[in-house]
Write a structure and sequence with these properties.
With about 280 residues, this protein is an alpha+beta fold. It has one domain: Carbonic Anhydrase II (Roll). The strands form two sheets. Strands 2, 3, 4, 5, 6, 7, 10, 11, 12, 13, 14 and 15 form a twelve-stranded mixed sheet that branches. The longest helix has 11 residues. The structure holds zinc ion. The site of zinc ion has 6 residues, from strand 7.
Length: about 280
Amino acid sequence: ARSLSLFISYFQTGSCLVVKTEGGLEEELWPQEYPACGGHRQSPIDLQQNQVRFNPALRALNLTGYQEDRLGQFPMINNGHTVQISLPPTMRMTAPDGTEYVAKQMHYHWGGASSEVSGSEHTVDGIRRVIEIHIVHYNAKYESYDIAKEVSDGLAVLAAFVEIQEYAENTYYTNFINHLANVRYTGQITTLRGLDILDMLPRDLQHYYSYEGSLTTPPCTENVHWFVLADSVKLSRSQVWKLENSLLNYQNETLHNDYRRTQPLHHRVVEANFRSFPNQRE
Ligand SMILES: [Zn+2]
């Protein structure tokens, strides 16, 4: 019962990632407790090039305040499932349809169970990427995340992949990665100062996939507008290794492979405002 309550309290904080052992609820059993997890617009999905609808009318996302809090303080927690950074409500994202969203938190999904295992949630043509970043936002027309997470047009997640660039240390990640040691144990909190979220994202913010999906953890609410960036963040192998091996879960085991399996597309259409894959774009 203890682990089940941990499980539930975790999901009430609004993150979206997979839990393999908590409360004994394996992914396949989620729908029994949370019917939405068995729904028809679930996330993550496999982004298939030959299925994506090219829509040049999708304008670039407008990100404001992502850089203006350089002097601000950002609480960062090991919640037993990922490292999560709280974001100030001055960070906003405007979707191409004009909807404004308020940033709530960002977290990471990684692999690391063996040196060959990648840990992104979305895959591209069946290929799992090394790491996936999620920045969770809620619709600005609602008073709070807690209200927005219950309604059909409540949430939007900006997602980005990480790729390994062998020996090229990404200095925009130094501050964040250095602080992982302070949150080794579940429940530990530290404070990041002077974080520039824009610098922690891919350089190209213009091109993205877009589709209607869900939270990737229970309760799997089907109210998330997903924006998955085509470009990726580059980290050195050593930086990726540190993210994969710094945190411990509730059982004091190293936190690995915190991703949910890809879900069927069903009737949905994925749109993109670029024609080819980022790898081939150059
Ligand atoms: Zn997530």
